[in-house]
Request: fold
Amino acid sequence: MEIKKIGVIGAGQMGSGIAHVCALAGYDIKLNDISRERIESGLATINGNMVRQVNSERITEKQREASLARIEIAENLESFDDLDLVVESATEDEDIKRQIFADVCKVVRPDTIIGTNTSSISITRLAATTDRPEQFVGVHFMNPVPVMELVELIRGIATSDETYNAVRDVVAKLGKVPAASEDFPAFIVNRILLPMINEAVYTLYEGVGSVDSIDKCMRLGAHHPMGPLELADFIGLDTCLSIMQVLYEGLADTKYRPCPLLVKYVEAGWLGRKTQRGFYDYRGEEPVPTR
Ligand code: CAA
Reply:
């Protein structure tokens, strides 16, 4: 099956990035979220990031215009009846995702493939809530989507070869590299990355280092492009916490227990860049550590 039309559900950080790279690769996109304002804000993000790419001569102005014209606002899911692939990229909450799949299955064609950009939840379990587990696959993009080369592909127990291959072809057309991961909690990247971030929060919690010194150590001592706390703010502390909870519960091992300080930040609503405050405060000219 050749994929031409793609629906993206969720116009946040990840969904807008997915719509961005798919539109740039020539796919027709329908972008959906819970309100028109959110979709428009996602489109503004896409435009801003494309302008950046034009300025650094990675794409042309013509490509930017043509790509934006390929993205249609879908205020509800009714217009999803002509899509080849739907990629769900909503909040990392299993109940929300289940409800979305129930709604999507009612409107899409029987042969439409459903992909989820979940960063940690079982593909097999999500697939089982749909009417098409064979046509359901995990397609996990990395943030920032226009920059990062990798896409993890995760088969549920029932995912067919046709589905997997069709989505792998899309990833190749996006100019990204697919990596196969088995369907276990948090897959490969987050299984390794999130415990490191959680450990950085413990390092802060136990007073081993300050925000500044922890990030500096990992930037300069391990050549990470961002320090772990800066990266946590970039990913979103709520997302970090929910991935740690999935690891903790899914693997039943205390080594994955979320750091209480991470929980405290999330309870405060200090979720990182998206709320302008996390391990850093982003409200001024320069980010300032909050501890
Ligand atoms: N859209 C388009 N282009 C972007 C962009 C975006 N959102 N963000 C950055 N860029 C571009 C910049 O324009 C710049 O392009 P040029 O080289 O053409 O000038 C380039 O990327 C580098 O950006 P900057 O110069 O602004 O800054 P930088 O060198 O510090 O790089 C970064 C920024 C790419 C984000 C880098 O800091 C980095 O790689 N950080 C780590 C990111 C990471 O680990 N991501 C994975 C997170 S885990 C995940 O996503 C999985 C999950 O489920 C949680």
Observations:
- The chain has two domains: 5-181, 190-289.
- The radius of gyration is 19 Å.
- The mean pLDDT is 97.
